[in-house]
Amino acid sequence: MCEGLLEESDGEEEEGDGHPRAPDDDDDGVEARRTTATATAEKKTEQQRRREKAARRKRALQAALRAARLQHQELFRLRGIKAQVALRLAELARRRERRRLQRLAEADKPRRLGRLKYQDPDIDVQLSSELSGSLRTLKPEGNILRDRFKSFQRRNMIEPRERAKFKRKYKVKLVEKRAFREIQL
Fold it and tell me: Residue 122 — pLDDT band, cuts 50, 70, 90?
């Protein structure tokens, strides 16, 4: 075992694997590889160039054939596409007509303006026993003001309403009088 400073030999150091190492070994190997790769890329034979040119032509021809085949298939599919478009247009026209008819039917009906829905009033009629022999003695039936009010509701001029229910603001207290209490005991 050596202790202290190691003595250096004359230029070459031994590594742990026992082989002497040159200081610029790695750099030369990389440079050599680079130059060979570029040199081989530049130097191609005529036969290699012809093969690459033929391969490029073949790929271009295959791409053109594929595009032509796809276009041909699209032409054959055109009839089916036209039929689908015609069906879709017919369906749209039928829906449009149905919506138009529905809008016309809804135009005559009263719309819902408020919380409640409009309800037709009951028709006021007289029973056969209440009818008299002449129109002069016939009693008037119904209420003109109520009829006008319902007409406004039907024509969407005012919203349908219901009569407000009477509600007390305070709770009613039950108090027994003394006189009444004495009688019960």
Answer: confident
